[in-house]
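Structure representation:
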Amino acid sequence: MLILFSFLVLTQQQKDVEFDNKNYWTLIDRISSDNVYRIKNLTNPYYYVQVTLFQDDWSFLLNYDLNQIPNLNTSRGDYISFYEKRRTRFLKIEPNGKIIYITAHSNSSRGNYNITIWGSKDEYCDNSCSNQGECYEDGCECIAGYVGSDCHQTAMEIQEDKNEIYFYGNETQFFYLNIDGYDQMDIQLKLSTNSYQGIEIILQLTDALIIPSQYQLSNEESYIKQSKIYDTQPLDLIFYSLSPSSDNIQLVFAARPINSPLDTIVCILTIELSKYDKSENTFSIIVIIIIVVVISVAVIIIIILFFICKSIRKRKMLRMQARLRMARLEGQQQNQITQQQDYENLYDLLTPIPIQDCNNQDSCAICLDNLNNNQEVRQTHCHHNFHSLCIKEWLQKNKKECPVCRSNLAIKDVKTNQEPNK
């Protein structure tokens, strides 16, 4: 049952094309996710397919393959019309004796379309040209003022020097530049506007004409380049060494005001076309490089000088600290020498006396031992007697006072305080 059901479904979706005696076939079909058309009886070298949608369907995609059912987005198809979201789709097929399979895919299940297929011995372009465009093997050649894969879109030609374009409301305008007159030349386009709300610019990298919208386009759509310009943010486009491989090569781009009210003059787009001078740009780059190098060298020199000055200041501080330490040590040594000299001077002023001249003093007031123990005795100017070793140790402890009466034993007091022995 499952196999029978699958066969019935496949039979319903797949239709065999039966040509009339003029090699012509047409059908009005309902939109489906996978409508398949098969062409078996091939008597012509070329076959052409044209589909006209009766309503807008941005998901509708027309593909074909040979000897197998096409795979979505991988087999050959009319992707240009798909990108343009147009109601008319077109295929040019060279079967080389193989069976042709054509799919008409849509995410929608509502609506109808007309599909027409015919065979021919003559080769035409990959689309049906409009607006007096001429059909060649490599595509439509449009007359002045029209662009697109089938010459359906009106456009303004960019002239040399300055072009000013007025926009009314949120209308979209297309522009083109013929490259065949700029062989082996670099071209520069300067785009500017007086609108603070800005203008959306779509540079076309394919024959498809993408109408700009207010919404951000996907980054995966590499067939276009999207930019926005404002009154304070112009745009420079540079095209290097454009050498056309065939005649009538064009640059096409579209422009549309952003968030503009209807039925009013909202902004002016200014397009300046000129030959790009590499020498000026090279000179500017060299000047910028020199400035950057000079600034970098200056910064490096300043950093080096900073660390050198810091090192010099540090060495000066270390030398100053060493000098202060030396001066402090010298002062301490000088104080010690002075104390030693004072001690020696004071000790020399003490007169050695015999034990009988001790003025009835029997013991040393420092060690409390008897003076008459065969030790040398010395007397102060205040007439107090001590063992020589005891008074010497007393003076070595930086004590300049008499151990008994606390009289000053310094040199300056010797003459004033000294009294004759009795």
Remarks:
- Residues 2-124 form a domain with the Jelly Rolls fold (CATH 2.60.120.380).
- The chain is about 25% helix and 30% strand.
- Confidence is low (pLDDT under 50) at residues 4-12, 412-422.
- The two ends are 157 Å apart (CA to CA).
